[in-house]
Amino acid sequence: MSSQFSETVRSFLAPIIRYLDDPEVSEIMINSPDEIWVERKGKVERTGARFESADALMSAVNNISQFVKRRLTEETPYMDARLPDGSRVHAILPPCARRGICLDIRKFSKDALTVEKLIEFGSLNQKALQFLEACTHIKKNVIVSGGTGSGKTSLLNAISSLIPNNERIIVIEDSAELQLQQDHVVPLESKPPDRHGKGEVSIRDLLRSTLRLRPDRIVIGEIRGGEALDFLQALNTGHGGSMGTIHANSPVDALARLETLTLFGGVELPLKAIRAQVTSAIDIVIQTSRYHDGSRKVSHISEVLPVGNDENYRVVDIFKFCQEGIEPGGDILGSLGPTGQKPIFYNDLTMSGYELPDDMFTAPERDERAHSG
């Protein structure tokens, strides 16, 4: 990744070069000139590295901003940029960063996560994969939900490989991270305003344009604003089989966050109508979680049910990760397995000719019922 920097920029980043060059380090977090942390194999650790002074760190940040053609000023004391290889850089200057210049570099993995690797790592299993393949086959809409650093984008990238190769897919992102391998993919990227505050192209702008580009499916890197309303409307008007990610800590929370973001769309709708839109548009929520041993796993694959009589969201866990213990080294023991619940669209699968094994949804005896919120 560091080869994407010029030799000049690399010279200013000398204190952290070894971490930039280390393939096991996925993120470098500089909280101040003398406090530098890295994420290695999913675990965050403090390093002994340090910049000589605040001026030395500022020089490094200025060189990075020039390299990525961004401006850092008193009026805009922050920068969010993408490097040519897809890695992301974010910087915040004082006084917003109270302890000094804050710089974060999230390295882009050259080896894309695949569904096969998810199974190999224990994040997914064959039954769950078959179920997700079936959902993709009959064009169910899928949201990948998770907290910061839980692997949402990587999981979405892997799951998107299940989309048939003969479909036209429009991909919308703030920063290009998804690497869809299908033949007919149109990648779109938002554009920040210039120094005069003009020329911005938002995710919402791109989504509206997408609807005129005859997409078979729409994939949004992250839903984080008023575009949620447009996305839901698109899903409810014939663009089935679409996907996206959202920040949330559970499947029910994901639906509630979609509801909140829909309110940012500037259209006043009754809460009941918004919830009906959400539950009509979203069929499956895949929850990804980051555990204390640094591992990232799919914790739930849940079906979204219609709003109940109490007007609360309801989901049923079709697959759920069950922790069975902890190994002596601290690694979590457990597996993702069926809960015994069949999706309400099970007949749709059989009617479409998609055959699933008889024991697909068979589970050990445990109480897994719909929960609401």
* Residues in helices, as a percent range: 25-40%
What are the low-pLDDT stretches, counting only 5+ consecutive residues below 50? none
CATH architecture of the largest domain: 3-Layer(aba) Sandwich
Name given to the CATH homologous superfamily of the largest domain:
P-loop containing nucleotide triphosphate hydrolases
CATH class of the largest domain: Alpha Beta
Output the number of helix runs.
11
Largest sheet: 10 strands, mixed
Overall structural class, as computed from helix and strand content, comes to: alpha/beta
- Portion in beta strands: 25-35%
Question: Would you write up a description of this structure?
Answer:
This protein is α/β, with parallel strands linked by helices and 373 residues long. The protein folds into two domains: 2-106, 2-Layer Sandwich (Beta-Lactamase); 115-372, Rossmann fold (3-Layer(aba) Sandwich), CATH 3.40.50. 26% of the residues lie in helices and 26% in strands. It is built from eleven helices and 16 strands. The protein has helices at 7-12, 17-20, 54-67, 115-121, 126-137, 152-159, 203-210, 227-235, 251-263, 271-281, 346-351; strands spanning 25-32, 35-40, 43-46, 78-82, 88-92, 102-106, 142-146, 169-173, 185-189, 217-220, 243-247, 284-290, 296-305, 314-326, 332-338, 371-372. The strands form two sheets. Strands 7, 8, 9, 10, 11, 12, 13, 14, 15 and 16 form a ten-stranded mixed sheet that branches. Strands 3-2-1-6-5-4 form a six-stranded antiparallel sheet, with helices on one face.
